[in-house]
Design a protein that fits this description.
The protein has 363 residues and is α+β, with helices and mostly antiparallel strands. Helix content is 35%, strand content 24%.
């Protein structure tokens, strides 16, 4: 029972009062459970513990019900005849108790198996739902090439990315990471998607968008959680990028003309850390970049740069930049794949955190 104290579950041809007298409170039960072996009193009237008890029973046999993993209880058998249990009878009762213990253990294992199967099925459904929340197909543009790689460390996770094409020339992008992992992070990730799609329909600059997103998240995200986010607009007509980084990983921007990789470090607090109007005081205006054909932008979550090898060393920004430089001429999909593969090879295993890589190559 939940109290941790032994309780009478079933009795036959004996009264509860007689049972309590024979059990000596819980002391006898605890002794049998502690010793993990049967205990017999052949003549109760001559036993020091029962001299003052007026009971009609003379012989008492106590047998533990055990399994390989735990003790479930004790069987008490009393008889009105002195020394009434023969060895063969005692052995039969012990065998019965052992079988009862195995049956209880099997029932417990089956129950756990059913619960685990139900939980895994629920997680499978949650994973399928979350997969549907991420873009199944990125927009096509003759002037842009999008590619993404994303995976959760558990069945579900807190990484999010999305691309919305507003019109022929304007694209709005977001990549974010909810603190923590698992189902809670996945729930808040769904909240982010709803906020992103609602606000992306409005004509907001990147700074106003981030302010509004923080205000919306503050109403639905539990204290102690926060969201890092990079939000940007790409205008293919003006070849301009407007970007604001709210606590998220620095982006990498490759310029073909100068053959340089620039780390875009300007940023501000993550969403949900400051939950009032003063959040705007921590925001800058964001960055404005102009691109040329052949340039590309790499966005990602910290599951890549914080991946660790067996010695605890992080993959880090330097290795990340080296992979970009090595594959600067590759297609966007190839570059995204090579970044993830390099991080996995560095750790010699699957990555332990959710990860997302989003590459935008400008044509």
């Amino acid at each position: 029972p939940e109290t941790g104290l032994p309780e009478i579950s079933l009795y036959k041809r004996i009264t509860p009062r007689d049972i309590q007298a024979l059990k000596q409170g819980n002391e006898l039960t605890e002794k049998v459970i502690r010793d993990q072996r049967h205990f017999q009193i052949k003549n109760l009237r001559k036993h020091r513990a029962y001299k003052n008890h007026n009971t009609r029973y003379r012989t008492l046999l106590c047998v533990p019900i055990t399994s390989s993993s735990q003790t479930y209880g004790v069987v008490y058998i009393a008889n009105e005849v002195v020394n009434s249990f023969e060895d063969v009878t005692i052995q039969s009762i012990i065998t019965f108790a052992e079988q009862a213990g195995m049956a209880l253990e099997n029932a417990h294992l089956i129950k756990n198996s059913i619960e685990l199967e139900r939980y895994q099925e629920q997680l499978k459904i949650a994973k399928e739902v979350q997969t549907q929340l991420l873009p199944q197909q990125l927009p096509y543009s003759p002037e842009l090439e999008f590619a993404a790689e994303s995976e959760n460390a558990q069945e579900v996770g807190g990484d999010y990315f999305d691309v919305v094409q507003v019109n022929e020339h304007l694209f709005k992008l977001a990549i974010g990471d909810v603190s923590g992992k698992g189902t809670t992070a996945a729930f808040y990730m769904a909240e982010i998607k709803g906020i992103f799609h609602a606000l992306s329909q409005l004509d907001l600059d990147v700074r106003t968008f981030v302010c509004c997103a923080n205000k919306a998240l503050a109403k639905c995200i539990q204290k102690g959680f926060f969201v890092t986010l990079t939000y940007l607009h790409i205008n293919t007509q003006t070849k301009q990028i407007d970007m604001l980084r709210a606590g998220h990983c620095p982006a990498f921007f490759y310029r073909k003309a100068s053959d340089e990789i620039q780390m875009l470090r300007d940023g501000t607090l993550g969403l949900g850390i400051v939950r009032n109007d003063s959040f705007g005081n921590f925001l800058g205006q964001g960055e404005t970049l102009h691109y040329q054909p052949g340039d590309f932008l790499v966005l990602y979550t910290d599951g890549i740069v914080e991946a660790r090898d067996e010695h605890g060393e992080e993959f880090g920004y330097e290795r990340f930049e080296q992979i970009i430089a090595r594959h600067k001429a590759a297609a966007a999909s190839t570059l995204a794949s090579e970044i993830v593969q390099a991080a996995k090879e560095f750790t010699h295993s699957e990555l332990q955190d959710d990860y997302t890589v989003l590459v935008i190559r400008f044509r």
